[in-house]
Each structure stands twice: as structure tokens, then as C-alpha cells.
Amino acid sequence: MRRVFYRGLIVVFVQVVFVSMAFSQPVYKQSFKFAKFLDYLYSYYVDTVNASDVVEEAIVNILDELDPHSTYIPADELKKMREPLQGNFEGIGISFNILKDTLYVISAISGGPSEKVGVRAGDKIVKVDGDNIAGIGITNEDVFSLLRGKKGTKVTITVLRKNNKELLDFTIVRDKIPIFSIDASYMINENTGYIKINRFSATTIKEFSEAAIALKEKNAQNLVLDLTGNGGGYLDAAVKLADEFLPANRLVVYTEGANSPKREYLTTSAGRFENGKIIVLIDEGSASASEIVSGAIQDWDRGIVLGRRSFGKGLVQREMLLPDESAVRITIARYYTPSGRLIQKPFINGSEEYHLEIYSRYSKGELASKDSIDFPDSLMHTTLVKERAVFGGGGIMPDIFIPFDTTYYSDYYRDLIRKGIINEFILEYVDNNRDKLLKAYPQFQAFKKGYTLSDKLFERFIIYAEKEGLVRDDEALEVSGAQIKLMLKAFMARDIYGRSEFFEIYNTSTETYLKALDVLRDWDTYYQEVFY
């Protein structure tokens, strides 16, 4: 009865919404019709009806039927939902959505505590501190209340992960979630810089400009732009970032929708990296604004895109306030790369399957081999300078494919990360030895080149992990030992020097980054393979 009731509400409400968009006489008739319906419902229904709840649930269901990115935001949650792009807060650092009474992780915010322990996009959080939160009508406010908290406090979340039979527990130490959109900026070699951007926020271009100036002062002529795991953000920030790499009056992206006339976004003034070698790193977590930037660079044959196929989000949302100060983010247009590619992947099977599509890539073997990726010829386009074949309809396919690296993976290593054991051990160790370490390595480069984790300290860490409930696994240590040592050193660098220094060490173990170094060393060969 309840389902039939709400389906009826949705049908009526859809009529109101779409007719209203036309700004014609029927708007008033349909609005009056729906208002009258609510009045009858409120006045005569057999049980008490909360009109506000009815309307809000109708809106949520309508938007869920339209596309995966159109959402409703209640008034008391609007400010908090904007924080990842505009402010800062103390919590566990995830972007989330509640779908069918289940809390989904959309992304673990780069540099935040959830990412550090291994929480992934697509995870379903079913318990918090042992208490069930699935199927109980949890709201965004409930999530904020449960997962936010004072820096340094702990919370344990229990996660259901696709293709995992057992539930996974992650112990997370709450922290200040950074507002910075640039995680790292440093010189790779004497003439090449590296910048990692975690999201496209209101401060991204200012941050990028400052980082670019600093790198240019160190003679950076080339750039590795790392957009792996970057779920997107503001369209304007993406356009301005692409402007840094392309000459004036080049199309970066255009948007178009049934009620949104075609709008083209062009480059303007000279950018800081219009010349020199450009490598863009992407993966399955790179979405939206990341795809605009990488797509523009690829379509104009400006640089080499390296990694794995990006997420595939080509829809543009606009936030619109409602009379009670709640808001809807409605998809108003699709965006297209300069060659005319629509990047959006299909969502015909509903929001849940859409958000979990990344797991189907894994099961089909796509993360291990590009041969499993099949783009139909109907989605083929050509780049604008070299006329190379590129495809739309499902993200940006990199020019050079890099498989997901599992060579150092073991369940033991996974558990070390997800339980936060490495992070906790290093926090304690650095706290007790900071002065000693800084005296021996006053500068990061000295630490990077000169510090080696001793066998004694490594053994001490393994014992610490045992005390935290992780049984020693010598077979797994054979596989993952070198990576664990590198992670210990990287976390140590973060706690002593900063976030950028963490990545400068951590990157030396990632296949995508290492391949970028190979490409830089033998640019002419790779350039010929990619562009001719």
C-alpha cells in the first residue's frame, strides 16, 4: 500500500516538475492540482500524514529515477554538504550518499583518515561502533552525528564490500579534513614538476597557481599532473586548469541540455604550462572535472594521458534553492569534450548498479588488461590535431594503459591499512622521536635519501600489530614487506614534514607514477607510439 501510494505521488510530482520547467499556463493548473491532492491527503487520509515528509520523499524518489547525480538536500544539511568543496570539518573524511536506506561511500577524501585506512568508493557502511545503521531509515544528519567528531577520537565502521564474503572493520582516527585541493607539489627531476589535485574546489586555481609559480622558480618546464582518485568538483575550476596547458581560444568543453542552450568554454590568456611535456595520470576514481581536463588535453593532443579508464561522469548539476532553504542539485546538461565526446557512462539499470559499476570492471578483468575494454565504433571520435581515435560513452581511456598493481598485495597488508595500524604506530613513534629524527634529517631530501627503516624497528612494528589483533603472517610479509616498510617511511615523512612529502615517497611504489617517469626519460619513443 505504501509503495503504491508513493508511486502515485511520484507520477503526480513528476508532472509538476517538468511542466513547471516550461513556464507555461499548465504550470499553475498542475501546481494547484498537486496542492489540492496534498490537502485532501492531509485532511481525509485514514492515518496522520506529515505533508513535509510526503513532499520530501516524493522529491527524493523523483530525482533517484532521473539520474544518479540529481539529489535533494534538506535545509539543515545543505551547509554540511557544501563543506568538502568550500570549508573544513573534523571527521572521517568521506563523501557519501544514502541510497535505498543504505550508506554508500562515494569517495574517501584524498588525504583524509578514511582513505588512509583503505575505505573505498562503493563500500556500504552497515555498522558504526558495532551498532547497525543499515535498513533503519538513517539520514544525512544521522551520518554526520555518528561519523564527525573531535580530532583524535576514534570510530570503527563496519563495511560490506562487493566480492568480499566477510564484513570489514576499519578503525579510523578522526582528523581535520583539509580544505586544500592540492595534495602534493614537488620537483621530480631538474626540469619536471609534479602536482596532485584531489578535487576541483573554490580554491583549486589559486592553489595551482601558487604551486606552479614555485615549480617554475625551480626550473620546471614539464609537468606530471596527477588526477588519480579525483572525483571532480566545480566546472569553472576545471576549465581554468585546462587553460594552464592550452593556447588561447581553444575549446575546453561544451555543455548542452534540453533546457540549457549549448555553451562553450574557451581558454583565455597564456597558461604557465602551454609548452613542455605534459603527462596526466588518471584512474577509475577520476571523474567529472578530472575528465574535462584530461579529455581536453587528450583531444588537443597536448600531452599523454596515462593510467586506467576514468569513472565516466559527464553530467552537469546546478544547485537550486527551494522555499524552505533546502535545495536540489539537478542535472541540467551533459558535457562534451572538444572532439564531441560524451563521457557519461550508462545508468539505465538504476543508481545502485551505476555506483557499483567499478566492481564489474574488476570482475571483467578491465583493471588488469585493456583488452577487456570494448568501445563500440559508434562512440569513436578523432582528436583535433593528430586525428587519433578516441572514444566516448564511458570515461576517458588513457593513451597508455597501466594495470592495477597487485604484486605487493596480501590480506595482511590490507588489514594493516584498513585497521589504521601503520598510521597509529607512526603517530606514536614520531611523537616520541621527532626531535631525534629532525636532528638527524633536518631537511626532507636528506630523510628521503638517507633514512632506511631498520629491521629492529620493523620487527617492533610487527609486534605492535600483533597487540592490535593482527596475527603475524610470515608468508604475507615476504610478499608485502617492502611495501609495508615504504608505507611506514611515507607516513613518517608526512608526520614530520607534510602531506606533499608523503606522496613523494609513496609515489615511488605506484606503477602509474613509475611509468610516467619512464615516459619522461624516453619521451620521443612514447610520443611516436601515442601520436602516430
Name the features:
532 residues; alpha+beta; Pdz3 Domain; 2-enoyl-CoA Hydratase, Chain A, domain 1; 6-stranded antiparallel sheet; 6-stranded mixed sheet; 21 strands; 42% helix; 20% strand; disordered N terminus
Q: What is the class of the largest domain in the CATH system?
A: Alpha Beta
The overall number of domains is 4
Shape: globular
The CATH topology of the largest domain, please? 2-enoyl-CoA Hydratase, Chain A, domain 1
Largest sheet: 6 strands, antiparallel
Q: Beta fraction of the residues?
A: 15-25%
Q: What is the second-level CATH architecture of the largest domain? A: Alpha-Beta Complex
Question: What would you call the structural class?
Answer: alpha+beta
| Cα Rg | 25 Å
Summarize this structure briefly.
The protein has 532 residues and is an alpha+beta fold. It has 19 helices and 21 strands.
